[in-house]
Amino acid sequence: QSGLVPAYSAESDSEDEGAEKDEKEGRLTDWVKLACLLCRRQFPSKEWLLCSPQIQVFPLNKETIIDGLSLLCQTGKRLEHELKNKIYSYIHIRFLDLSNNYISDLSPLAPMTHLLWLKVDTNSVTSLKGQPLAEFTFLQWLSVASNQLVDIEGLVGPSLETLILSGNSIQKISGLQSADFANLVILELRANQLETTSGFDLPNLRKLYLVIQGWCLMQILPESCSFHLVCW
Fold it and tell me: Which domain of life is it from (predicted)?
């Protein structure tokens, strides 16, 4: 009957025999005490042990974790042309942070259709037009802060709940309509060059962060929106 070994050491095997078996079994079995070195379980006989399924140990590498990985951070890697080669295999990623690189083209992300959260702050994105945002039908959180955007043309997000566009050079935000952004509740537009929020209709918006200099905010914000406004 199997049981637990109270104490043992790898010295139970002879030096030659132990070395050979360590190499063969991956240092998992003490063949003198017939015990598993992982769980400290002792087996009734050598025959029983040889007939039992052997424990397999898989190395922790890209190939073994790729299907189960949900979060990937590649920040400050100076990525630009290398982006596709770095992440093309991680199609099951849910959370992706690519901040502080030199990325201007997000098209290598197109296969990542399961994304829920995407952060591409402090990069070189000049336009959202032609970017694969339409592929991210499940995306709920998006931050493109501190890039080089001047408008939001091309921006889509049927599932977006939080959108952060602070620190760009955006002058107008027309196109933010409830039909395309029905779930949007938090919008950050601080440190841009906005003069008006004309063309802005988001009735479900709850928090809006922005600065518009030289205007009366209460006169230019859309009356249809219900939100908590924070000015900086």
Answer: Eukaryota
Residue 54 lies in a domain: no
Report how far apart the first and last C-alpha atoms of the chain are (Å, whole number): 72
Per the structure, the complete domain to which residue 224 belongs is given by 59-230
At 21, the amino acid letter reads K
pLDDT at 211: 73
CATH at 90? 3.80.10.10
Specify the pLDDT at position 5: 43
Count structural domains, the chain.
1
Q: Is residue 34 part of a domain?
A: no
Q: Where are the beta strands (DSSP E) in the chain?
A: 3-4, 29-30, 35-36, 41-42, 71-73, 95-97, 117-119, 141-143, 162-164, 176-177, 186-188, 200-201, 207-209, 228-230
Q: How far apart are CA 172 and CA 174, in angstroms?
A: 6
Is 13 within a domain? Answer: no
What whole-number distance in Å separates Cα of residue 225 and Cα of residue 204? 7
